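Hi D.,

Good news: the full-assembly prediction came through. Inputs first.
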Amino acid sequence: MGKFRIKVDLGLCQGHSVCLAEAPELFRVVDTDMAYPQAQVIQENPAPELLSKAEGAAEYCPNGAITIVYEDD
Amino acid sequence: MTTIELPASQKQKSRPIPFVSGASGPAGHYEEFCATPLEFLHRAFDECGEVAEFDMGGLRTVLMVGPEAHEAFFRAPEEQLNAAAAYQMMVPVFGEGVQFGASPEIERQQLRIQYQGLRYEKMINYAALVAGEVEEFIKDWGDEGEKDFYEAFTDLTLKTSTHCLLGSELRYQLTHEFEELYGDLDRGLDPAALLDPYQQKDTYRKRDLARTRLQELVSASVRSRRERGVVSNDMLQIYMDAQYEDGTKLTDNEITGMVIWFMFAGHHTSSNTAAWSLVEMARNPQYFPELKAEIDALYAKSKELSMNALRDIPLLEGFVRESLRVHPPLNAISRRVLKEFHYKDYVVEVGKNVMLCPHVAHKLPEFFPNPYVFDPKRPAPENVFASIAFGGGKHKCIGNAFALLQVRAIFCALLREYDFELTQAAEAYREVMPTLILRPSDPCRLRYKRRKN
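Then the structure:
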């Protein structure tokens, strides 16, 4: 129960870094060769107790680039 | 993800794109588009559906409507659907060598420089700066009065955006002349500029004179800063210090263009959103008690506005988001087709433009039930491509988070002090589009009254 994964749509991400502020355990923002940096997920299988932080990142992302995929056991 | 490329075997089955009625001679639909762009684009959609072709004086343009079409548009690579070729009307405003007047490589590097002002660590200081500007703005208002809020918000957002994005030095150099010059540049962006921004006419001559004069003013600031050896923590400094990847610095022409570009992107779009939000609040006064309670609760927690506190005001956010849905400021998001573009059974040939229109797209009843009802409690659509007020994909307005923060901060500071009501019949506040930006009609007067505690 409570397992989840995080997906970042790089066609939408413009590196606003709200996810990094919400959940530094789950995201980093890295430089790219585009005009702006982009977010990367740093935990493939995050601990269930980080779910609310991940949901905060998805909710407040200005570009709606983050999706939480809920996985049943 | 939407598939935009059809297998070669199916290409011959492409369907013709429906053509909008009423084209007249070599000008096609150009005159009607320039005179009444929104009415024309709605008519095009009503007649033809999700793809509609029209003729802009020889430039064939395909309007695409609906989240699926928007997604195909925004995910197409730059080499296929090109923004620079479609937005050449910005070149005489920002200047040659700046943004779409530069090579794609230079444009990318310039956008990287602009992004410095919108970084998260900068944004966290902006809410309090905006609130401070609003306090300064209302200090002489007295207990009650009337104002034109299109003009008032044009004035206020010029100050708030300049202060936050370009720094206090440029903010306090904002003179009446600066505002006039910006106005002249703005009037140069009429619908006709989409086709030819170099026609010989007075508005374009004034635009060019304004660009020249702005360069004198900005160059003088740069020179003075260099002579005094002053180093500031603002965008002008970032422009002055910035280097391209080959080590060269920005010229005065480029610095001026960067200032104008940054201001243009965030000024009228934000001021009109603020004006519409206020008009809609006054049109729907039943929400005022809840709005005020929300804002009072925010100030009860903290005297100073912060970026995080501004998230916790769902009804105010709903008013701003719904204003952007019903009255989106920018309504001709365009790209030039450089490589044949396939969408469903349709093929758009090289040389044509494709266009999205938020005003049309935001009225689709499948995604926005009762689309002509202003409902600040309307849930956001699940499809991220249904709402396109800020564009989408890689070219989405990178100032979108700043714009929303700025308008929310303005209303927190305003509604904390004052109540507002219309001075004319609700329907007298009409949508007009004398330039490429949608705005409320003149006069946009509202009455304000100090809140009773």
